[in-house]
Amino acid sequence: MPIEVPPRKVLAVSLDGTPHSLIMRRAEQPGSIWPRLFERGTIRRIRSSRPEMSSVAWASYLTGANPGEHGVFGFVEPQFTPRPRLSYPNGSQLRRPPIHRRVHDAGRVPISINVPMTSPPAPVSGVVVGGFLGVTLAGNVHPPELERELQRAGYIVDPDPALAYRDRARFLAVLFDALEKRVALAERLAIERDWDYFHLHVMETDRLFHFFWDEQAYAAGFNELLVRCERAVERFARIAAAKNAALVVLSDHGFTRSRRIVFVNALLEKAGLLSYRGGKRSFAAIDPRSQAFALAPGRIFLHRTPHAPGSRERRERAGQLAGVLRQVVDPETREPPFASVDHAADLYAGPEIVRAPDLVILPRDGYDLKADFDADRVFATPEVLVGTHRYGDAFFYATEGPSAAWEDDEREITDAGRAVASLLALPGTAGSSDFAAVTGTTPSG
Ligand SMILES: [Zn+2]
Questions:
Q1: Distance 319 CA to ligand 1 centre (A)
Q2: What Cα–Cα distance (Å) separates residue 2 from each residue in 63, 299, 411, 418, 431?
Q3: Ligand 1 mean position to 386 CA, how many Å?
Q4: Confidence at residue 6, expressed as pLDDT on a 0 to 100 scale
């Protein structure tokens, strides 16, 4: 029997893509905020979702469920009817209610700022400012009256990464600006309003790591943006204490220097498994006789197979394809770029698995899996996008709650969402030990 615990208020700050290892290195620097936080709570190294990307990871956090249940497997999904096209799932596609919705349904007040997969914003009792993949403020703020105020303040939902390819210095300046305005809004709401669950999400860290990881020319700016994030965390720690709320700080995946890019569709094409018609290479132009195609970051879909998802025939076909992928070697580094190639049924559980990719590739550290249809080579060395995600090395810090009993590397981001839901004593939050049996996502070991 689960033990009845009274609900706690929770204040969460998430730093997208920020590695546990980076936090631990920064904790050793003089004046760091982290040793003070570690005195009052515990930090655990956790793993991301599969695939290790923000939209899937945050959908898993928000719902406390795996992709087989919440239905988000990537930031782009294939559609075949009425015609082949790619769609971009947003928060309205979540098949399980996100945490701010559940807080509202329990008669309490959520405030959610910039959290991925919360756009369009749910009409809840508090405030929701949508995040990634939302781009503009229009229609992305609840209550709508707040939208005009944010427009006036120059609030930016997500700095346009295309700018980084044209002018990296300018892009870095926009990251500082976006962060400052986001934190200012969040701080004001956290102080002035009454809330039961408050979540500020910082996306700027992910953008910083993608474009500036280990870039010596930008080392000072890189460090300074992290210092600004940490000062914000410190101020939110004070607000949490003043409001008698538990403090949570977390990230959704790790990061590392990108050594090589793999264009997975070019790989499939070269292996004779994917072709196009009409002289154009795009998703819509895939030849119906193709065996498979990929969507970022390494999700492989069998193409137009007559075999139903979950059938033995389909798994066999996917297994053959996995065998081909496991043989791939990068001719320059002589390393296999894929650490593992996994069947959807071995990663996910739930009714949405029918929409899952057949195979999900886990890249070797430092390999960035792309799915451009028009790439003219299989491997490349990155020049601008110098950082890439890691499945491991995310972190979860909490001043209280079940995570104090976790081992490093034992849990995924889904468990982080469930830990927060259990602090909030939301209905339907099973004890964390029940979770493995429910979803199968809790790892062995
Ligand atoms: Zn992320």
A1: 29
A2: 20, 37, 20, 14, 6
A3: 15
A4: 81
